[in-house]
Amino acid sequence: MLVFVLHLLGLQTLSTSLSGRDTPLPAPVAHLRLSAPPPTEAVELKPLAAVPTAKQTQVAKIVAPPSASPPKTNESSSVLTPVPEPVEVAAATATETTLPVAPSPDPVAVLTVETPASPALPSANNPAPAAPPWLAQAKFVWPAPVVLNYELSGTSKGVKYNASANISWKYQDSSYQLRHEIQAFLLGNRSQTSAGQMGATGLLPTRFGDQFRQEQAAHFDRAKGLLIYSANTPSQAIEEGAQDRVSLFMQIAAAMAGTPDLRNAGQQLNFQVVSAKQAEVWTFAVLGPEKIKLPVGEVDCLKIHRVPRNEYDQKLELWLSPSHGYVPARLRITQANGDVIEESLKSLGKP
Q1: φ and ψ of 11, to 5 deg
Q2: d(CA 142, CA 171)
């Protein structure tokens, strides 16, 4: 009976952390701007050969509804090896990109891996926010396809438990797929997936899925400049550089690997982060170097964390390994009530 109770407590923490519900706050003020999104560029990536970028211009005309007050929602938020011959992807202002396909990783040595008060539709009177300054200077070095295996330890209401987790990263040509999965004995699995394109501004997600018993999803409709949710929540405008709760790991890793200036202590990266029900802007700050012990060995890391907006925000800390392509060697999620989930790298392999 005691074991069953402990597993139930673990399930509650896993579900809360992956679905990303912070402690409810008073309804925040929405910061959504109305506008059509800027043109995007599709980048075709060919193995070991430069391929001119195909330009695509997408225009969406959206008519604002009459002066009816849009519905309101309650606040919630969520989360979760040396690079062989690194290849730089052009900065956001570039019009042409060359990216060879990286070789398959050596499993032993390579790890190159507020809720708005109302929905907002783009309009000419409210231009879309410009790309964050860091994104305009960023260059991206992508890891080879890899599976990162983690040991997971958690605490729920003072009770400790263990599980396993993994992040799978793979791509072909200009398309990518990411999967973050947690497997807990007797509790079942929970997975979050991201799929989309790779471009000059990094990853361009087209769909984010969050599955536990049933799946909910967010769709990035870039033609209309909108985030559309399968849950009964209002659509939101897509901001430049938007990521989901899985793609943010690889976006940060590739930006750090390709842009040395972003590694300086105090440097900040801010971008819109999308869950299956809502999106908000998160800010990450570089804290500095730190050596940590992991199941895979002792690793020199660069630590960054999500800058909290208030005491109720869910905390996210990432230890990025320079010798492993700046992909997280450890990640830690801390809830407002003190519950913690920590994933530590134990091995890696091929997807």
Answers
A1: -60, -40
A2: 10
- The two tokens of residue 107 are 């499993």
Q: Answer whether 0.85 is exceeded by the pTM.
A: no
Pairing status of strand 175-184 against strand 188-199 = antiparallel
Strand bridging mode 279-294 / 268-274: antiparallel
Write the secondary structure of the chain as one string of H (helix), E (strand) and C (coil). Answer: CHHHHHHHHHHHHHHHHHHCCCCCCCCCCCCCCCCCCCCCEECCCECCECCCCEECCCCCCCCCCCCCCCCCCCCCCCCCCCCCCCCEECCCCCCCCCCCCCCCCCCCCCCCCCCCCCCCCCECCECCCCCCHHHHHCCEECCCCEEEEEEEEEEECCEEEEEEEEEEEEEECCEEEEEEEEEECCCEEEEEEEEEEEECCEEEEEEEEEEECEEEEEEEECCCCEEEECCCCCCEECCCCCEECCHHHHHHHHHHHHCHHHHCCCCEEEEEEECCCCEEEEEEEEEEEEEEEECCEEEEEEEEEECCCCCCCCEEEEEECHHHCCCEEEEEEECCCCCEEEEEEEEEECC
Q: Locate the domains of the chain by residue range.
A: 2-24+41-60+87-349
Read off φ and ψ for residue 16, nearest 5 degrees: -65, -40
136 Cβ neighbours under 8 A, 6+ residues apart: 91, 92, 93
Taking the chain, what is the end-to-end CA distance rounded to the nearest angstrom?
38
Instruction: Please give the chain's pLDDT, 351 residues, in tens.
Output: 444 434 444 545 545 555 554 434 343 333 334 344 444 444 444 444 444 444 443 434 444 444 444 444 444 434 443 333 443 444 333 333 334 334 444 443 344 333 333 344 444 455 556 778 999 999 999 988 999 999 999 988 888 889 999 999 999 999 999 999 998 876 678 999 999 999 999 999 999 999 988 999 999 999 999 999 998 899 999 999 999 999 999 999 999 999 999 999 999 999 999 999 999 999 999 999 999 999 999 999 999 999 998 888 999 999 999 988 999 999 999 998 999 999 999 999 988
